[in-house]
Amino acid sequence: QVQLVESGGGLVQAGGSLRLSCAASGQGFSSYAMGWFLQAPGKEREFVAALNWNGASTNYADSVKGRFTISRDNAKNTVYLQMNSLKPEDTAVYYCAAGRNSLPRPRTRITNYDYWGQGTQVTVSS
Questions:
Q1: Cβ-count burial of 36 within 10 angstroms (0-12 exposed, 13-18 middle, 19+ buried)?
Q2: In this structure, what are the phi and psi dihedrals at residue 89, rounded to the nearest 5 degrees?
Q3: Whole-number Å distance between alpha carbons of 48 and 94
Q4: Residue 115 phi, psi (nearest 5)
Q5: What's the pLDDT tens digit per position in 32-62?
Q6: Which residues contact 87 (CB under 8 A, 6 or more apart)?
Q7: Cα–Cα separations (whole angstroms), residue 48 to 1, 36, 40, 75, 92
Q8: pLDDT in tens, 3-32
């Protein structure tokens, strides 16, 4: 089992950048695929980005391709989401999650992930 804690959210102007971190504790972080999801007010949680256990394979939502980058440091038990060129529509609570690895790319469905953090708020002003 793994516990996840997100940090790095905040208020930023449109066009700005933020880096979210997700620190993991417990067993086996380096064996999990890791994902980021967002949930805007009144909407369902949706996929943002994911990468497999060694970071060699990634997957991104079309809405963030070219702007967001997911990465991980298994020595630090941490996964990151670098968010550039932020838009007001990126405003949401961002969650990290841990799940099973898959080939050829990590999965995008909420049900593919077993462990979740509590979320961190990202607000992008226009």
A1: buried
A2: -75, -5
A3: 9
A4: -125, 140
A5: 999 999 999 999 999 999 999 998 999 999 9
A6: 14, 124
A7: 23, 5, 12, 24, 11
A8: 999 999 999 999 999 999 999 998 889 999
DSSP H or E stretch at residue 125: strand 120-125
Distances (CA, A) of 112 to 6, 9, 80, 94, 125: 19, 24, 19, 17, 32
Tokens 């064996």, residue? 31
Q: With CA atoms as reference, report the closest residue to 48 among 6, 8, 106, 7.
A: 106
Q: Rounded to whole angstroms, how far apart are CA atoms 69 and 114?
A: 22
What Å distances lie between residue 87 and 11, 44, 64, 70, CA to CA?
12, 19, 10, 18
